[in-house]
Amino acid sequence: MILACFILSPGTSLAETTASDNGAKQLWQLIDYVAVDYGGAVNKGTVVSEAEYAEMLDFTNNATLQIQSLPANASKDAIATAIADLRSAVVSKTDASDVKRLAHLANTKLIAAYPIPVAPKKAPNLSKGSMLYNAQCASCHGSKGDGNGPLAAALDPKPIAFTDQERAQSRSLMALYQVISQGVEGTSMPSFASLTDDDRWALAFFIGSISYNDAMRAQGEKLWKESPDIKTLFPDLAAVTTLTQDSLAQKMLSTNARDITAYLRNSPGVVEELKPAGVALSRLRLSESLTALHSGDRAAAMKLGLSAYLDGFEPLEPTIGARNKSLLIAVEGAMLAYRSAIAKGTVSEAEAAAENLNRLFADVDEEMGKKEVDPMTTFIGALTILLREGVEALLIVIGIIAFLKKAERPDVLRYVHSGWVSALFAGALTWVIATYLVTISGASREVTEGAGSIFAAIVLLTVGLWMHQKSSAGRWQAYLHEKLSAAMFRRTAWALFALSFIAVYREVFETVLFYSALATDGNSGALLAGFLTAILLLVIIAWAMLRTSAIMPIGKFFSITSVLVMVLAVILIGKGSIALQEAGWIGVTPFTWPRIPLLGMHPTAETMFAQMLVLIVALFGFSFNYFTSLKRHKI
């Protein structure tokens, strides 16, 4: 089940951030505190609170020191200069509006140079945020956020009033999230790091919307729908979480900034709807990748090139594969060629590959634009997908079952059956989770398929050599009765379970994704008919394989099976290699080589090398077994 858990893991947690990330986050928070709280310390050049002003001096001094501890970066000096300007403004008791501007400028430079997570992975649930607020915060901050909760009178300092519009307009959602996550030292505000990341963001969004009313939100919605220029300011959730009302007021009327902030904090999902997806995202990332390559940043170009495939095109892959397999293969090959050109640093070659990709993207757009799909196409797709994936799994599982029956070890069969049955249940669970709970990323999918294929290939290579050795040695029946003890099988039973599980799960995983894509075509009857027909054919094939293996002489059975197992190992190592290449784990070197996906053959040097290596090991092992057997017989 490890592979199933791996692909569905939610990603890197807050606790897994690097020391560099933590340093940048803390520095960002120090600067943000200055932007928000300076107005309560200085008013028109006069200190109105000595304690708060001392705190502002301390924060800016710490920020000046802390920027030096961050890793080297081309923009580090510019950030240090921005922080020095902020420090100078605080020392000079400059007006609060200028201090806010300088603080936001410094933080903008900081995030650009040291990227840290500044937004949730998806639009937060404000209803959940409201529930969390009432359960965790209302006792201090009040049910309406006015700072007058039942416990407020006994607290020093007093809880913040979230209804304070002046304070709210200079505080970002990112800042609220940071305070919720870390707490505030020296106050009664505790850390809520025990909450999930999604819950902390939901709480931050809810608290950040308290100071705004429904009239503001309604006006903000109207502005959002009628003003395309405003939408360009919010390309993603990161803009919603980092931009403040004050910073927006520098780009539009202050009342418009207030209303837009009120609307987006209450309805962040509208920003997600604007994000490019599919082919549009692939084109965008491809363009950004070429820009990075032209500027000499090959690492960024490679990262963006991978994103063009994994984040843009890969989610469409099942649908395109079901409708137009040749187009899918062409795009995959062009993507690999583009990344290969980046790896070599050849700009002209990369530009040619990108031009080819954009032509193919136009074909993808046309294919995806077809509203109606012929039911027969859906039927054939459902039939061939399941049949193709199923036969591959059957060859491995039926081979194991037949072997154990020949070895007269029915006691171990239950491990094999448990393995493939568990894989079917895991596949069903994958479908439920991928459909209703989380989205399986392209990288996770490719890594899961690649790792599963390579594991199975290595096991099959080992088993095939062992089976061929025994078939060459003869006296199979005696060997099975005398050598294959119960102790030996107890040691290997769980390995057989793992092999049968992975062999079936990787095929079920692939089938689930393709069937989910076919289901969107609306031909549910044809889809079900294709599925049932494929199941019937797989049952017939399984029966025929078991029947044939049962009547076949034991020596011949193991001799033929060992060859078949080796062929499967060569196929799977090829499939695993190309999957890891598509995930960016292995480099790509295009090679003149036939592309036959059914045999795991792809035109890259790495895939070809992996298959040739396994084939050479298999041939060497077979030859060694053969000549050893001849020598033994002569003696």
Structural commentary:
The chain has 635 residues and is mainly alpha-helical. It has 4 domains: 19-113, Four Helix Bundle (Hemerythrin (Met), subunit A) (Up-down Bundle); 126-150 and 158-272, Cytochrome Bc1 Complex, Chain D, domain 2, CATH 1.10.760; 278-368, no CATH class; 375-634, no CATH class. Helix content is 74%, strand content 1%. The protein is built from 29 helices and 2 strands. The protein has a two-stranded antiparallel ribbon with strand order 1-2. A hairpin with a 2-residue loop joins β1 (42-43) and β2. α3 (50-69) packs antiparallel against α4 and α19 (317-323) packs across α20 (325-344). The radius of gyration is 31 Å and the shape is elongated. Residues 1-19 and 480-488 have low confidence and may be disordered.
- The number of strands is 2
Ranges where pLDDT stays below 50 over 5 or more residues in a row are 1-19, 480-488
Percent helix, as a range, is over 70%
Strand order of the largest sheet: 1-2
Q: Report the major sheet.
A: 2 strands, antiparallel
Mean of residue pLDDT values: 80
Characterize the overall form.
Answer: elongated
Number of domains: 4
Strand and helix layout:
Elements: H1 2-7, H2 19-37, E1 42-43, E2 46-47, H3 50-69, H4 76-91, H5 96-113, H6 126-136, H7 138-141, H8 165-168, H9 173-182, H10 197-209, H11 214-226, H12 228-231, H13 237-242, H14 245-249, H15 254-266, H16 269-272, H17 278-294, H18 298-313, H19 317-323, H20 325-344, H21 347-368, H22 375-406, H23 410-436, H24 442-473, H25 476-482, H26 486-519, H27 524-551, H28 554-582, H29 605-634
Antiparallel strand pairs: 1-2
Helix pairs in contact: 2-3, 2-5, 3-4, 4-5, 6-10, 9-10, 10-15, 11-15, 17-18, 17-21, 18-20, 19-20, 19-26, 20-21, 22-23, 22-26, 22-27, 22-28, 23-26, 24-26, 24-28, 24-29, 28-29
